[in-house]
Amino acid sequence: MSIFSEVWDYLADGSNWTGTGGILGYLIQQLLLTGTALLLAVAVGLPLALWLGHVGRGGFLAINISNVGRAIPTFALLALLVTADWPGVATFGPFGRAGIATLIALTLFALPPIITNTYVAIREVAGDVKEAARGMGMTGWQQFRRVELPLALPLVAGGVRLALVQVWATATIAALVAGPGLGRIITSGFANNYYGKGIAGAVVVAVVAMALEVLAALVQRAIDPVPTTPTTRSEDAPQTNDLPTTA
Amino acid sequence: MQLRRIAASALAISTVLLATACAGDDLASDDTGSSSGGGDKGTVKISGQDFGEVQIVASMYEQLLDAEGYDASVQLVGTRDVYMGNGQFPETVQLVPEYVGGIVDYLNSTVNGPDADSLTTPDADESVSAASSLLEDKGITLLDPSAAVDTNAFFVTKEFSESEGVTKLSDLKGTSVVVAAAPDCAERTDCGKGLTDDYGINVTQFLPLGFASADVFKSVADDESQLGLTSTTDGTLESQGMVLLEDDQQIQPAQNLVPAVSTEWLADNQDVEGILNDLMAALTTEKLTELNAEVSVDRAKPADVAKEFLTSEGLL
Questions:
Q1: Is the model's pLDDT at B35 over the cut of 60?
Q2: Binning pLDDT at 50, 70 and 90, where does residue B22 land?
Q3: Chain B residue with minimal CA distance to A82?
Q4: Which is more confidently placed, B125 or A191?
Q5: B37 falls in which pLDDT band (50, 70, 90)?
Q6: Residues A125/A148, Cβ–Cβ less than 8 Å
Q7: Tell me, what's the pLDDT at B51?
Q8: Measured between alpha carbons, how far is B175 from B36 in angstroms, rounded to an integer?
Q9: Residue A112 in contact with residue A67, Cβ under 8 Å?
């Protein structure tokens, strides 16, 4: 029981949140890292996977290359990057020590779920729907833009969401090279036999992960072009009321 | 189709498992080295923390005891907590290559709490007698401490030492430095707190890069940090162009090498005391540093290095 009260004491003490080495600073650093890595991965992976899914070729290669990326331990990659001359451990603005190395490692880590989900989502749009689109005289671009993308969007967004939460939680490994982020709280806590601090760091990471997940789910629902609950909607607003009366 | 896929993946997984199992065997047999003693005096289990120096010293224990007719085996683990906890030492493990300050501080903080006053001083015998009742309660006997000392020590680059005229830690009084050290350094009196409180050094940042790790050396070499943490018996310093700074205000507790033995087992095997005391008398900090260098710089096997030393000292 004492370990929980130690965790609580650590979190309740305001001085642990502010200043150098405070939770808040590391939290912002890690959010910045996660956001940037995800943006980079989306910018690289999404167009590629969308295009491959649309033309229906090269997907085997793309998925397998990105899956090999999944098999490489992110920590090994990070350790390799910090020992190299570039990027090394140079401090990169607000991203902190070894900022570039961490960004690269996390971006590569975010690619597999984004590429795999996106490629599969576009590929799996029903063949007869695509055929119907072609039959209506749609060009390739129109077919992609107006049929495939809307139908694939939930799964694509799912991939990005998965990447977001994974990257957020994995970003803690940067602490192992004295890099940025909340991992520093965790490693310093455990290294000093101050388990309350270590677990407090982990709790903050977990809570923010859940918050990000909920936030991403809300965004996903907001951009979903296919209404998921048509029945309740018709109950809420009976169509008959809106019918124009005949003059 | 489904079934075939499951069969294929099962085959793949079992192949991988088999391969790792084989690899594990190889490593294990490498580690134990020469454990073909007569065994008529019974078995001895030796444990300790798994790093170069302890690997060498544990192998010395093993070879000496094997030669005397014991059947000794070594199993090193990650941290002191592992072999001290769960009834291992001194119950199922009889012998551990220890450090005076390390074991005394460990017993003191586990028995009297993490905030207990330190029992260790820069003097080895003083530290041992201060902890005599703790050791007795636990059933551990410490034999004669060696002259060889492995304490924390701080190093700088040769260029820094020459251009700034720094040879001891007190030369850095009042200057601002970044320290690359183990993650627990900042809070320890024999590490970060000693630097700031005893030496008056203005430490602007502690980089938690590990104890004498490659990252620590790289950070100091790149001038990202000025002080790096290692041990007094680090054999790699010279080859990396680093020099140790003298601990002239003695913030380090006595970390002399010392054999920690199960009291009960020692009572039945009293010849062990003489064997290990001879070994401890033969070791010095300089010799230990050379042996460490053979392992960490020249990549010799700890067992071979131990054997060579024992033979040249006439102990084996």
A1: no
A2: very low
A3: B215
A4: B125
A5: very low
A6: yes
A7: 85
A8: 56
A9: yes
Q: Using the beta-carbon criterion (under 8 Å), do B222 and A82 form an inter-chain contact?
A: no
What residue type is assigned to position A43 of the chain? A
CB-CB neighbors (< 8 A) of B182 in chain A: 191
pLDDT beneath 50, residues of chain A: 232-247
DSSP 8-state assignment for residue A246: P
Backbone angles phi, psi at A119, to 5 degrees: -60, -50
Lowest mean pLDDT among A7-11, A93-97, B18-22, B122-126: B18-22
Least reliable range by pLDDT among A88-102, A162-176, B36-50, B190-204 = B36-50
Residue with tokens 């018709």: A234
**How far is A52 from A56, CA to CA, in rounded Å?**
6
Residue from B302, B313, B309, B311 nearest B56 by CA: B302
Q: Are B281 and B202 in contact (CB under 8 A)?
A: no
Residues B208, A188: C-beta atoms closer than 8 Å: yes
Beta-bridge partner residues of B36 = none
| Amino acid in the structure at residue A47 | P
Of the candidates B226, B252, B234, B224, the residue with the CA atom closest to the CA atom of residue B297: B234
Cβ within 8 Å of residue A144, ≥6 positions away? A50, A54
Contacts with B187 from chain A: Cβ below 8 Å = 192
- State whether ipTM is beyond 0.90: no
Task: Write out chain B residues lying below 8 Å of A188, CB-based.
Answer: 183, 186, 208
Above 80 in pLDDT, residue B31? no
The answer on pLDDT for B91 being more than 60 is yes
Q: Find the closest chain A residue to B114 by CA distance.
A: A193
Q: What is the mean pLDDT of residues B47-68?
A: 94
